[in-house]
Amino acid sequence: MGWLDNTVSIVTGGGSGLGRALVQRFIAEGASVGVLERDAAKAEQLGHDFGDRVHAVTGDVSSYADNARAVQETVARFGRLDTFVGNAGVFDYFRTLPELDAEHLSAAFDELFAVNVKGYLLGAKAALPELLKTRGSIIFTISNAGFYPAGGGPLYTASKHAVVGLVRELGYELAPKVRVNGVAPGGMKTELGGLAATGTEQVKLSQMEGLDDLMRSISPLQIAAEPEDYCGPYVLLASRANSSPMTGVVINTDGGLGVRGFTQMAGGEAL
Ligand code: NAD
């Protein structure tokens, strides 16, 4: 018996990285999963890998029509919708304000916020009528960048702080019928892409030299986590039986960045 038996979820950006790990884990927990994914090849691969437990729709989260199509097709295929996971995202590759060209700044902001913030809002709007029917829930992927500086540049950091705001506002507005929560993972080696406006569209986080060592060195738990390591809190939040009193909260799952302190780790050697 799984925690999500006989439920139906949608995961945006389910074609790779964390989204794909969520698709796999939700299916293992008994759910059927719809996916909205921009990359057609990744969407097609999901069908090969997960068969009739997944319904992948190719489209862009920054389009309301594409979100609505994903909801409509998922409900037509699986009969209901219990959880909407907003997860598709893009990255600013740590470009600081001094490094960002003035001529590209406005376009870079619009491009990043269109996916990371507007995409979540449009998805929630499209899913809401179905979630009201099932008393379902919304989960947004945030990031350590939703809480602390230096998890990106100002564009990414502001976008993830904005999603914390969406969790709180929508948690308030949609109660008591629909719960709205967030998960804020730490770093992981994925294909997270950059922005056309800054010429980093084809860059992937997985190409970054020394990323695993960096993640280990900054987290108290000294881990370089994989996408699979971050899925548990999503299962908890999607499970009515295990989280029915929870709304408007964010679960930080980042190796303990919030207890990093001012010195090098106290434990380690001593423990
Ligand atoms: P990823 O690139 O492997 O996965 C994101 C998926 O979203 C990709 O399949 C991509 O094709 C898709 N996508 C991108 N833009 C889209 C759009 N406009 N419409 C539809 N699909 C789109 O990257 P990931 O690291 O798994 O990112 C997933 C989420 O995790 C993002 O919200 C990201 O900000 C967040 N996150 C990532 C890290 C990290 O270190 N990788 C850390 C914390 C949070």
The major pleated sheet works out as:
7 strands, parallel
Assign an overall shape.
Answer: globular
Number of helices: 8
Structural class: alpha/beta
Protein architecture, described:
The protein is an alpha/beta fold and 271 residues long. 41% of the residues lie in helices and 13% in strands. It is built from 8 helices and 7 strands. A 7-stranded parallel β-sheet has the order 3-2-1-4-5-6-7, with helices on both faces. Helix 5 links the parallel strand 5 and strand 6 (179-185). It binds nicotinamide-adenine-dinucleotide.
Keywords, separated by commas or semicolons:
271 residues, globular, binds nicotinamide-adenine-dinucleotide, seven-stranded parallel beta sheet, 8 helices, alpha/beta
In short:
With 271 residues, this protein is of the alpha/beta class. 41% of the residues lie in helices and 13% in strands.
Secondary-structure map:
Elements: E1 8-12, H1 17-28, E2 32-37, H2 40-50, E3 54-58, H3 64-78, E4 83-86, H4 102-134, E5 137-141, H5 154-174, E6 179-185, H6 211-218, H7 232-238, H8 240-243, E7 250-253
Helix pairs in contact: 3-4, 4-5
